[in-house]
């Protein structure tokens, strides 16, 4: 079902769970973006995190490069939000602000597997897990 | 297209679930965990294997590698948290 009204911002946890097959809903969500059924966004910060996290899990460089290409095919990669815009966000972990601010900038629903971020982000935008995102899309 | 000659039946449970007969699952390569689409058509409900479930081979290879490494969701969240701190410092504190 085509749904062009909803924008989703994909947290690194969701991208990694899709790429490693730990959460099939996350993967279906990314595939939906690839097939242009929905608009998915990440930013350069997320892309860098994906690369670093896959290195931590000791995937080969070839597979990491493929994974980055795959995510870039599924999602629109946005520029990072400048730090000057971070001051309005008061959340538990300041390191999460680039993700939160990226989602707010795109007027998107944040999709994450991280419960702490999910609870923090709720003050500023809608935040869901991949399964909930699929429900919104009727997939 | 070769159609099955017999008519197959399924029973709806209290929860509203039905079992797709094995012969049809095999014919249409529907596996556990696959997603199917329900289409509301003139004479009933059509069940279509979703195109979203065809996994690119290179992605499948990464899933298999993650299985071998026993990567869990908890581990993913923890690793991302660790990496996030480093990336934040590089991008915004350097």
Account of the 3D structure:
- The complex is a heterodimer of chains A (139) and B (94).
- Chain A has 139 residues and is of the alpha/beta class.
- Chain A has one domain (7-137): 5'-nuclease (Rossmann fold).
- Helix content of chain A is 50%, strand content 12%.
- Chain A has helices spanning 12-19, 24-34, 44-56, 61-74, 97-105, 115-121, 130-137; strands at residues 7-10, 39-43, 76-78, 109-111, 127-128.
- In chain A, helix 1 (12-19) packs across helix 2, helix 1 (12-19) packs across helix 3 and helix 2 crosses helix 7 (130-137).
- The termini of chain A are close together.
- The mean pLDDT of chain A is 93.
- Chain B has 94 residues and is α+β, with helices and mostly antiparallel strands.
- Chain B folds into two domains: 1-51, Pemi-like Protein 1, Chain: D; 57-93.
- Chain B contains three helices and two strands; from the N terminus they run H-E-E-H-H.
- In chain B, strands 1-2 form a two-stranded antiparallel ribbon.
- In chain B, 13% of the residues are buried.
- The mean pLDDT of chain B is 85.
- Chains A and B meet through helix 1, helix 2, helix 3 and helix 4 of A and helix 2 and helix 3 of B.
Task: Please describe the structure with a list of short key phrases separated by commas or semicolons.
heterodimer, A: 139 residues, alpha/beta, Rossmann fold, 5-stranded parallel beta sheet, 7 helices, B: 94 residues, Pemi-like Protein 1, Chain: D, two-stranded antiparallel ribbon, 41% helix
The level-1 CATH class of chain A = Alpha Beta
The proportion of residues in beta strands of chain A is 5-15%
Q: Indicate the percent of residues in helices of chain A.
A: 40-55%
Q: What's the β-strand tally of chain A? A: 5
Specify the oligomeric state. heterodimer
- Tally of contiguous helical segments of chain B: 3
| Secondary structure: number of strands of chain B | 2
CATH topology of chain A: Rossmann fold
Count of the domains of chain B:
2
Strands ordered across the widest β-sheet of chain A: 3-2-1-4-5
Compute the CA-based radius of gyration of chain B.
22 Å
Enumerate the spans of chain B where pLDDT stays under 50 for 5 or more consecutive residues. none
Individual helix count of chain A: 7
The overall average pLDDT of chain B, rounded, is 85
Helix content of chain B: 40-55%
Describe the biggest sheet of chain B? 2 strands, antiparallel
